[in-house]
Write a structure and sequence with these properties.
Strand content: 5-15%
Order of helices and strands: HHHEHHEH
Strand order of the largest sheet: 1-2
Mean pLDDT: 89
Distance between the termini: 54 Å
Radius of gyration: 24 Å
Shape: extended
Number of domains: 2
Number of helices: 6
Low-confidence stretches: none
Structural class: mainly alpha
Length: about 100
């Protein structure tokens, strides 16, 4: 396998270290499904998507220091807010009654 990867242009040292990592893992542990952790303290800012909107994520990051001047807001936003977009109505939503 190492030779095949090197023929494809991968660095030999990189291939060796990655193969050692693979060999060190137990097969039984790899066959179990990993449960993703969904614990996050980021507050979502939900906005209806529009192409006319400016870059909301950039604006949030730019003005976050101003928001965090207040001690109360530091408790509300321990991590930067998350910009989330909801889908706007499209032609199908307007024409088809659900």
């Amino acid at each position: 396998m190492k030779e095949q990867l090197q023929k494809r242009g991968y660095n030999g040292r990189f291939v060796e270290t990655e193969l050692k990592k693979v060999d060190s893992k137990k097969r039984e542990n790899l066959l179990h499904t990993k449960v993703p952790s969904k614990s996050t303290s980021r507050v979502p800012l939900v906005i209806t998507f529009s192409r006319a909107l400016p870059n909301v994520g950039h604006i949030l990051r730019k003005h976050l220091p101003t928001l965090l001047i207040s001690d109360h807001m530091k408790n509300v936003f321990p991590e930067p807010p998350l910009a989330a977009f909801r889908r706007d109505c499209n032609l199908q939503d307007i024409l088809v009654h659900k």
